[in-house]
Every structure is written in C-alpha cells, then in structure tokens.
Amino acid sequence: MEIGVCYYPEQWPRDRWETDSAMMTVAGLSVVRIGEFAWAAYEPERDRFDWDWLDDAVATLHTAGLSIVLGTPTATPPVWLALERPEILAVDAAGHRQPYGTRRHTCPTSAAYRHEARRIVAALVTRYGDHPAVVAWQVDNEPGNHDSARCWCDQCQAAFVGWLEERYGTIDALNQAWGTIFWSQVYPDFVAVRLPRPAPTTHSPSLLMAHRRFASAQVVAGLREQVDIIAAGSPDRDITVNFYASDTFIDYRAAARLGGIGAIDSYPHGVDSAAEVRFWHALARGISGTNRGWIMEQQPGAINWTPLNPPVPDGQVTKWLEDAAADGIERTLMFRWRAALTGQEQYHTGLLRHDGSSDRAYTEVQQADVSGTSASATIAVLYDYEDAWALDIEPHQAGLTHRQLVVAAHAAARELGPIDVVGWGDDWTGYRAVLIPAAVIATPARGEQIRATAATGTTVVVGPRSLTRTAELTALPSKLPGHLEVGATVVEGLSLPTELTIAETGIIVGPWFDVLAPNEGQAIGSVGGSSHLAGSPIAVSNEIGDGRVVLMAASSAEAWRWLMRELHLGAAPAT
Fold it and tell me: Which letter, b or e, does each residue of 144-174 get, where b requires 16 or more Cβ atoms within 10 Å of its Cβ?
C-alpha cells in the first residue's frame, strides 16, 4: 500500500515548501493531495487566475519525487463568487439561504453553480492535465457531507417536478405508487408535489424516499460533469471522489463508479467501533466496481469534531495503516501534513505540529508494514444506499441504521477471512456465502438475483426486515420476504424492547428479530426461555439448486457468528 498525505501549500510560506517536501520523502510518503479547498487562491477574482503559486508547489513536490493528486475546489467556492451569484447558495428546509464562509454550502442543482464548477475544473485541467507529477484527480470533497445533497430552493423544486414526471409518467401513476389516498394526500398534478419541509408530523415515506433519490442524482450528475472534463483533458490519470465513510446522503456506489475508485475518509474516532472501520475498508473497494479502494484522508491523531476528541494511543496510527493494507486498500493519505494555524480545524492533529516539528504520527507512518497483499474474499456482505435511506426514513427503532446491522454481520464474517462488500446487480458468483443483513426493499430483480446466486452453489443469508417494502417504501400486500419463496415466511418483524436469546447459548438475538414460520425449509436453532416466542426458529434454510437460501431471524453480531458455525462456513475463532 502506498502512503501519502494531504497538504495545503497555499496556507504556508513559500520558503517552507522545500523543507516540507524533504520531510515527506524522509517519512516514506510518495503521494500528496493538494488544491481541493483552494479556489480563492486559484482565482482571486473573476477570470484572474493566479497559477504562479500552484506551479511552484507542483514543481517543488515533483522535484522531491512526490506524485500529486490534484483536487477540484468545488466544495468551497470563493466569497466573491457567492456575492456575484448568490443563486449558487443552497436553501435549507426552513427556506433560509445558506451563508458563505463555510463549506458544502452550494446547491447541487443550481445551473450557475454547475457552470462555475465546470469552468474552474476546465481551467485546472488545461493547465495541469498533462503534468507528469499529476497522477490522479480528486473531484470535489466529501459530496453530500453535512446533509448538503438536499436543497429546497426554487431551482430544486422545479427540477424535482421534472424528475418525478420522468420517473412516473403520469400523476395517477405517482398517486398509485405512493398510496397517496392515505391522509388525503392525493396530488392533482406534479407541480403540487412539494419538496418535504418541516411539518406537524412526518411526511409520506414515499415522498421522503423520492427526495433522497432526487438529491443523490443531482449531486452525481454534477460530479459526472467534472469527471468528463478531467477524463477528456487529463487522460490516463486516476479519477476519484472522496466520501466521508459513514454518511448516507448520496449513493456512493453511483458516484464512485464514475471514476472506478472507491475513496473514503477514515476517522475511526468518528464511528462506533473498530469493526466498523474494517467494514469501511471493504466498502471502499466494493463501491468502486473495480475492487480498487483508497483512503483519501486517514486520522493521524486527535481530531476536532467529535464530542470528546480523545487522544490516540501510541502505535494506533501504525495499526490503522496496517489494517488498511491488510484489507486491500491501495493508497492511504494522512490528513493532514501540518496542524492548521487558522480556521475551523485548529484542534485537528497533523503529521507535524503547529510549530512545524514532527508529531507522533510522523514516526508511526514510517513504522507501518504495508508491504503485504490481501487474500481473495470468499464471503461477501451486501450494503445498499437505498436500503440505508429506507431505514433512515422508517427505522422502527430510534437510532437503528442499516450501517449498524450490516457492520454486525460483517464483523462476524470477517473472523472467517477477507470479506467483500457488494451491491445489487454486482457479480456475486464465486462466493461461498453472500450475507444480506438488512435489505428492506423488495423487487422481482432482487428476488431473482438471490435465487440465481444460490443455484450456483452459494449460501445466501437474508437477514431480518429484508424484502419487506416496495421500491416506493410501501408495504407489500403479499407474504414476506417479498418476491422470494424459500421454505419459510416471516410472520412478524419485531423491534425488541427485551433481550431474547438463542436457546442453550445465551446469545442475544439483537435489536431486530423476525418470527419465522417454516414450511419446506429446515429450522436452525430456536429462541430459548419461556416467552411466547420460545421455540421460534433463529434461521430457516432451503436448498435451491446447488446452494441454499437461509432466512436469518436475528441481528446481533454474536448471532451472526453462531449462524456461521451452524452453516459450517468456517470455524470462527474465539474473541
């Protein structure tokens, strides 16, 4: 794995750049990301480009033997542009125009913003597209972060109406698909469908899902415009978009596949567990469509934006880097090179301290052994952004997320060896098992992919609450799981206020539990105790072709580990 760093030469004196470049090479770094927040430095005023400083920075890094990932600066348009064209600024759900002086404050739909983004990207590509030091481009920065994908301006409202017309064709079709007769929500025409704003109670899940899909599509369309400019003007360079790993504001899979690299920003202190960090590594590869994963920002020490921001133990940065390499990450860039003297991230650690001396992480990156390669995965876990949106909209249990349920299954399976993360429509052939922990949406295509995969000899495990809603987030008027007849039906899906256990094990079943009724399938395990659920199956297996489909009723990581053993998918070691 290659190790690099994020660097901001525009924030430091010119006479420091050679020292920084030399220290980077001493530390064994080989690639440097620059420029993703530098629009005001690139273009101090309309059409007056200042390339001298960037020419010097690129030359300095190149002379030191460092490769460059050049960022497009569209997450932070300059103040002069916001003043000149205020329509680029997003509007929040309460109708307030977002202020400048921050980041990710633009409207993804705004024709003015999209035009200005194309203009600055084209200027960068014209200047540096064929520079030998530039080996890759980063498009934008953490798109969707801070819930910036959704905007409520008039342009977005008009575009939303057009998006609905294209998706549904007629207003009658929309009303039927959404079931708008509920609470007398029937729309007379598409113009009457408004973006969901604060209301006395919740909006229709179908409307909320449509808004999520629309917002994601708008962001991805803008990213595609930048990717197309770069691909045409800077051929044979890698192109990626970096994502804050745990966000679900846009469909990362759709965005990552624009360039074929899944790049995440990894801040372990910002997530729930170490197991989740390992999941993000697999996700980076999985969303790419090419199995290529990068970490564009890696936490180097204490950070500034979590509730407590605790210190990082000695050796932890080395461990994070070695874990990333073991999980198949190609390239990891530390964020950042030197702790910032100004702005909103002054408490964020860098490889260097504020005074320019080396911090602990500067030494720890040199101690990391990242020379190994990861083995091929035999088990895959499914993670899908529309399923994540479905649970964000209707979790049925406060705080429960698609991410938590998938990470539990991934943590259990990872003890058996390397794990891939896949999506619907990806190639699942060749895996010993595919785990589907929380795929809420049921479609005929999803049911067919599960059956076809099992028929080839794979064990496909479908977790609780899976395949229970239509694509419009309406309940299915049929037996569950929807579009999948596999030896059992789901009688009831429970959000448990009490702790049920697997009989004779003491293993807690988890936050969700499906009551399964076997017909032709084979029951595996049962609920213990004396409640009315005692004896209910923990799983039901049904053979299909050379493989099997297993319905899993429980949701905890411990229950998934138990099931892996029961299915003889590998002996999970004691933890």
Answer: bbeebbbbbbebbbebbbebbbeebeebeeb
